[in-house]
Design goal:
This protein is α+β, with helices and mostly antiparallel strands. It has four helices and ten strands; from the N terminus they run H-H-H-E-E-E-E-H-E-E-E-E-E-E. The chain is elongated.
């Protein structure tokens, strides 16, 4: 009986010692399809980092069924509303830039609100555009801000001189 156990063990040992399956580039490509950056466009309600204003309010971008939308929140009033009219802003940007712009496809990063909250500056078609949120008119911005050189996934210091990011 001991001899049969020993023989069985010797025959099973090579099976246990087999190398694990080698992963290929195709395996990694398949797995990459399920990462957050790839699937984020398929999920509604993802909220971006809030930008706080001096008066206690803050604004943020959230994904919606067909793109993204910007909201402004006033915690004191317990209110949340659209930050601006996305359709009108897209039409103003399209008119100024000569390109096609969709209100639900505005850039998610690089947006700056003026101190008086009456205009925003945003990147589009490798340029920066300043848009009046009262009249819904846009024009090319004079110059890029200091933090325009910062990586897209960075957090820029309040003075705009330093940025931190994950590489």
């Amino acid at each position: 009986m001991r001899l049969s156990h020993a023989a069985l063990f010797l025959l099973a040992a090579p099976l246990a010692a087999q190398e694990p399956r080698k992963l290929t580039a195709d395996d990694y490509a398949k797995a990459e399809k399920y990462l957050g950056a790839t699937t984020a466009g398929l999920v509604s309600g993802l909220v971006g980092r809030p930008t706080f204003l001096d008066d206690g309010r803050f604004w943020y971008r959230a994904t919606i069924a067909n793109g993204g939308s910007f909201f402004i929140v006033d915690p004191a009033k317990r209110s949340r509303e659209a930050f601006f009219d996305h359709t009108r802003l897209a039409a103003a940007l399209a008119s100024a830039s000569g390109g096609r712009v969709e209100g639900n496809r505005l850039p998610a990063f690089g947006i700056e609100l003026s101190k008086d909250s009456r205009s925003i500056t945003l990147p589009l078609q490798n340029k920066r555009w300043k848009c009046d949120l009262q009249q819904y008119t846009c024009a090319a911005a004079d110059s890029a801000p200091a933090n325009a050189r910062a990586p897209q996934n960075s957090s820029v210091s309040p003075d705009g001189k330093t940025a931190v990011f994950i590489k």
